[in-house]
Structure formats: C-alpha cells, structure tokens
Design goal:
Shape: globular
Protein name: ABC transporter substrate-binding protein
CATH class of the largest domain: Alpha Beta
Organism: Rhizobium puerariae
Family: Belongs to the bacterial solute-binding protein 1 family.
Subcellular location: Periplasm
CATH topology of the largest domain: D-Maltodextrin-Binding Protein, domain 2
Structural class: alpha+beta
CATH superfamily of the largest domain: Periplasmic binding protein-like II
Pfam families: SBP_bac_8 (PF13416)
Length: 421
C-alpha cells in the first residue's frame, strides 16, 4: 500500500514538474512581412518551430502580414502601443524606426555576424539594431552572345567598364539595330523603392548622394553639386539619346529582356533567376565605374527587437538562432536572394562556388553600398524618386535637383536633424 502511494506521489510530482516547465516558457510575439508567399512562409514557420522545440524558456508566436501592408501595420502598432517583441524591417527603414522609438539595440553575440555581408548588418548611431539572413544587390544583365556580336570586352570586378566603355556598349547596341532600346533601367517600377535602390548607385558612382553623409544634415552639394549635376545630365541623355525609355509598361519590364527588347538590363538579384531562364548564355556583369567606382545597392529585410519588448533577451535568442547557415541557405534557395555568409552560400544551388549566381555575392561584398543611414531616408527616397522621373521626362536637371535639395533640407529641419545634431 505504501509502495502504491509512493508511486502515485512520484507521478504527481512529475506532472507538477512538467506543468511548471511548460508554464516557464514565455511567449514572444513576432511580426513578419511575408504573408502570401508560400515558400517564404514555410521557411520562417519552420525556423520558429525549430526554435520553440530547441529550448524551454521561450516560445515564438508568429503573425505574418502581406508585404504592402506591413510597414503601415508597424506604424499603427507603434502608435497604439502594441508592437510585438520581434520585428522584421527593411534595412533602409531601420534608422527611422530606431529614431522614432520603435526599436531597441540588438544584443546578440556580434562575433557570430563577423563574416556576414556588410549590407546584412543594420547599424544606427553606432549600435547594431538589426541583422538580415540575406542581402539583395544589382547587376548589369546581358548575354555572352550579345557581348560577342557587339565586340565588347567582358568587364570584371577588378576591371569594370569605365563610363566611356559603358556608353560605347550602349551605342553599339543602339546602332546594331537589333534592340529597340539598349538599356532597361526598370523605369516602370516608379511607385516603390526601386529608384532609391536601383538608381542611387549610378548617382554614387558619379560621386553624388542623396545627402551629405559626413553630417546627414543637408543635401546641399551632395544632390546638387558638380558630380550630381553631371549624373543628372548623363541620366537624362540616356532617354533623350534613345538608349532607354522613360515610360515603360509592366509587361516590358517583366519580359522585355527575354524578348530581346533590351540589350542590357539593370536588375536586382531577386529577378536574376528569370534572366537565367530566358537564355542559356545569360551573364551578370558588375556595375560600371562612372567615375568614383562601381556601386550597387545593399541591405534587405532584417530582424530586430521592438523598443517595447519586455523580453529583449528572448527576442535576441530567437534572432541569433535564426542566423544558422542552414536557414540562410533555405531562404536563398526559396526566394532567390543572396545568403548572408560564404558558408551559407556554399550550401545553396545558385550561390555556391561555380553556381549560376555566384557573382552576386561578390558584387554585394565588393561593390555594395547601403542607402543613407538616416531616419530622413524615408523622405529622401520619395524626393529622389520624383526628381528622377522628372529628369527622365525632360525637366531641367539643375532646377530639379536644386528643388529636391530644398525639399530634403526642409524635412531635416522640421525634424530637428533626425538626431544627427
């Protein structure tokens, strides 16, 4: 009888311990931008499930939003005081969210991100706020057969095309009569972030910028100085000279390169697989050096911790867990973007040594440049987008860039320097 009571007592004790362990798991809320993308959703849900099963302290509860609605949802959540513990944030937006009080510094072991691509690391005010599992960048896409028929040198990272060589390539494509336009600049994509992502590298390569990065307090001289004016005149000449089209249809943007409408296409890594599928001899070229080195955009979506999280150590633990190479590789294979480390790249089908997109990793690492690291970028990008559209359609370069500088500077003043003073 005593033995039966002892056995029962041990059972009750075990049940109590199990219950206590379950109760000890603290819930962490997480918002993610990938709702509607089945592949992306499957991967992020797998990471969450793996993390929850890997330890007994935390359990992540995921809520996904459609990408177009995500940023507005975060802003609304911040105003309502109900942000989650873990956020993902588009890299260029992070400084604005940190400055606005949406996010707090990310306290992970930074030794674990030492070998990450620079664009995957989100720093603001000298502190790490976010880290990405992937990066995105840009390439000049063409065909080997096009280069051969036009008699063009194949540029390399060590010896990219100079401005003169690039213009000679465009002239050769135009005069060949084989292409309606020499260059696709994705001018259709003027309602999103492409202009500030895809066209600013051309401005940077001329030596201009959206804002003076030494202070972040003015755009004077950066966006309307001699280098920026030279860029604007060159950019406009691409359209007035018939090398590129200022007004582009969605269909031409999506299929124009594959149908031979363009000899060269300035494309992001996210669409590279479509270019590969179009032609067996598709080749990805580094950005041309337009005077101050070849430049491409860097930084994509990243993970961070909200300012209001009561469990930043748990949120950081999840983010650090997600940085494993197998997850970086899974996202790369699933959505086509660049894995953040060379070791993860080696596990992928496209970015491994000898893989069809191997060059993009090197482009990001060697030519990649992040957009201005300032809360003011949210406004600067919109102002730049309008200016580029106006210049492409024939507006005065000097007047347009001067007006853009005035608008950016007024915004900086309205916001008391965005914390840069």
């Amino acid at each position: 009888m005593n033995r039966l009571w002892k056995i029962a007592g041990l059972g009750l004790l075990a049940a109590a311990l199990t219950s206590s362990s379950a109760m000890a798991q603290t819930a962490l809320s997480m918002w993610y931008h990938g709702a509607g993308n089945e592949v992306e959703s499957k991967i992020i849900n797998q990471i969450v499930a793996d993390f929850n099963a890997s330890q007994s302290n935390w359990t992540v509860e995921l809520q996904s939003f459609p990408t177009p609605a995500y940023n507005d949802s975060v802003v609304a959540g911040a105003l309502a005081g109900n942000l989650p513990d873990i956020l993902d944030v588009d890299g260029p937006n992070m400084p604005n969210w940190a400055w606005a009080g949406y996010m707090q510094p990310l306290t992970i072991n930074e030794a674990k991100i030492e070998n990450f691509l620079p664009g995957a690391k989100g720093y603001w005010d000298g502190k790490l706020y976010s880290i990405g599992l992937w990066d995105a960048t840009i390439s000049l896409v063409t065909r080997t057969s096009t280069l051969e028929k036009l008699g063009l040198r194949t540029p390399t990272l060590k010896q990219p095309w100079t401005r003169d060589e690039f213009m000679a390539a465009l002239k050769a494509a135009k005069t060949s009569g084989n292409f309606p336009y020499a260059l696709d600049l994705a001018m259709q994509n003027n309602g999103g972030g492409w202009y500030a992502y895809g066209l600013t590298p051309l401005l940077w390569s001329f030596g201009g910028d959206l804002v003076d990065r030494s202070t972040y307090l003015t755009a004077e001289g950066a966006l309307n100085g001699d280098n920026a004016m030279a860029f604007g005149e060159w950019f406009q000449a691409l359209f007035t000279g018939g090398y590129a089209e200022a007004t582009q249809s969605q269909a031409d943007r999506e299929t124009g390169f594959a149908k031979g409408r363009y000899a060269f296409s300035w494309q992001g890594s996210g669409t590279a697989t479509k270019a590969l599928a179009a032609f067996d001899d598709t080749v990805f070229l580094p950005a041309p050096d337009l005077g101050h080195g070849g430049k491409v955009g860097a930084a994509s979506w990243q993970f961070g911790v909200s300012k209001t999280s009561k469990h930043p150590e748990g949120a950081a633990a999840f983010i650090e867990f997600a940085l494993q190479d197998k997850y970086l590789a899974a996202f790369s294979d699933g959505i086509g973007l660049i894995p953040a480390t060379t070791t993860a790249a080696a596990l992928t089908k496209n970015y491994r040594p000898g893989g069809p997109l191997e060059q993009f990793f090197a482009f990001s690492n060697e030519q990649g440049m992040v957009r201005p690291v300032t809360p003011g970028f949210a406004v600067e990008s919109v102002v730049f987008r309008k200016a580029m559209g106006d210049i492409a359609n024939g507006a005065s370069v000097a007047d347009t860039l001067d007006a853009a500088v005035d608008e950016i500077n007024a915004d900086i003043e309205r916001n008391n320097g965005y914390g840069h003073r």
